[in-house]
Specification:
It is a single chain. This protein is α+β, with helices and mostly antiparallel strands. It has one domain: Archaeosine Trna-guanine Transglycosylase, Chain: A, domain 4 (Roll), CATH 2.30.130.30. Helix content is 30%, strand content 29%. The protein has helices at residues 5-13, 25-28, 61-64, 81-88, 94-100; strands at 2-3, 18-22, 35-40, 47-58, 102-107. It has a five-stranded mixed β-sheet with strand order 1-3-4-5-2. The longest helix has 9 residues, at 5-13. The radius of gyration is 13 Å and the shape is globular.
Length: 108
């Protein structure tokens, strides 16, 4: 999976304990214990590998962010659950979220 530089550094430093995505066909295949390789954008010149410790699913990000503390997904301290969910709409429209569902992977 590709990560922006901030998220990549958060995972690398252990500050980002959760990665959230659309629950598309590729993500549905990931199970607890699987390994995820992250590539740092934009050049994908750095990689990092983590294991999946836990998986949470929900209809949309508003619901998902009630299942764990979004700050553990490297969101700013000042953000509310709704701020985080609204920010995810830049990547995944609310229609796509409600159609496919969303997922959070706990990383270790």
């Amino acid at each position: 999976m590709k990560l922006n530089p901030n998220a990549f550094q958060g995972v690398k430093d252990g500050k980002q304990k959760w990665e959230t995505r659309l629950l598309d066909e590729q993500r549905k295949e990931i199970k607890v214990g699987d390994t995820i390789t992250f590539y740092k954008l934009p050049d994908k010149d750095e990689i990092l590998t983590t294991k999946v410790a836990k998986i949470l699913t929900a209809k949309n990000f508003s619901e998902l962010f009630t299942k764990f503390d979004p700050k553990e997904a490297n969101w700013p301290e000042s953000y509310t659950i709704e701020d985080c969910a609204k920010s995810m709409e830049k990547y995944y429209s609310l229609d796509r979220q409600n159609e496919s569902g969303v997922v959070a992977f706990a990383l270790k």
